[in-house]
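Quick log. Single chain, no ligands specified.
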Amino acid sequence: MTLRIIIGLVVLSFLTSCGPTAKFSYTKQDKKAPASVQFQNESEKAESYTWKFGDGNESNKDNPEHLYLLSGKYEVTLEAEKGNKLKSKTQEIYIDAPDICLVLLETEFGNMLIHLYDETPKHRDNFIKLAEQNFYDGLLFHRVIEGFMIQGGDPNSKKAGANVPLGSGGPGYRIDAEFDKSLVHIKGALAAARQGDNANPKKESSGSQFYIVDGKPLTEEQIRNFGLSKGINYTDEQIKVMLEEGGTPFLDNEYTVFGQVIEGLEVIDKIAAVKKNNRDRPLEDIEMKITVIK
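-> predicted structure:
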């Protein structure tokens, strides 16, 4: 081997060793959407990183964790950079669809993951339809009562002035009541708002307005008495939740419960505790965004 070749190989090896390498692995905490994925950066000799998660989001963290809301195939790219040298690595990630009907309700106070019940198909399908039309995006929680509930879904609330009365808007139709004695007003219950019995003897639900139960903890005697008056045999788990976290069982069989917050109960407390005017409207607007997880 000539000296020139040896020198060339040494220079090539030096140049290669000076450049970064891009490599990563990942761990899915859940295979079904919404799925949180923890990425492990295994790159070498890089000064900065850019992660492209394949869903339009990016990060410059060394070892980011990313939440994939929707199922599907995603191409994840890690770019490792040092000086003017850049290397990239791309891998595919597959996220399966959830087994149950889920929506994500996003607010400035945090997010709530909500299970929509199959036992109330009319309410479930209507809520999904409106969410997929972006109907709820930008609407306000316009009525908030600590220890009771937080209410939203009035289309008139979007960009509504501070003195505008809210609570009477909707998409122009009602939904038949779908009472199910197994679905009750424990903390985190998602239920449909409606007009009072005088104007609405069939207890039909608003086409878009809903509330999420905050509630106050109850005694076991109170829970048993509500059960007797409503003809409901509360389960041990429902009683436990109402004892420890709260509920509004006096609304059972009066308003249709069609979902339950399964993650983010603390967000209800944060929203319920904000300062309000004499109409229970938050002084600072609280907007929502709802995404169907599929």
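The chain has two domains: 21-95, 101-293.
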